[in-house]
Amino acid sequence: MNHYRIALALTLALVLLVVGFFLYLGGFARLPSGAVTLSSLAFVVLLGLWLQSYILRYCGGVLFLVLGALFIWQTYSELGQKPVLFDFYWFILGALYLFDGAILLFSKPFAVEFERLRTAQSKHKTRLRKAFVIAAGVAICIALYNDVVHLIKLWNES
Questions:
Q1: Structural domain of residue 109, as residue ranges?
Q2: DSSP 8-class letter at 80
């Protein structure tokens, strides 16, 4: 199994691990917004890896390294305050995020395989990648616009 497939499998595991754990605890009705955000971000990175997008590869790698370090630090600093199952879960999740981020950013075999697959890509996948990057950019602009409008409303009220 090459590094590209390992990165895809790890990213898919991160999506399923976050959603599966919270579904096991309480179902869809009690799925926290943080779990939805984490799984959505990991899914976007997974789709970007499948489409061989440089932007999503590097942004996802940085995001995964930051999240991994955050989860491990949070687990270490709150050790013993939560049940052992939660400590173990957050540590494993952080380790997987760190490992996947390291592969995306620093693995030479991954970069070679990623570039090889990108150059041999079909035309429809190239068009789909461009559409996906544009859609992600539009979604970011909409989210930023909503935040700016909300901040202006808060500023006007004060």
A1: 3-120
A2: T
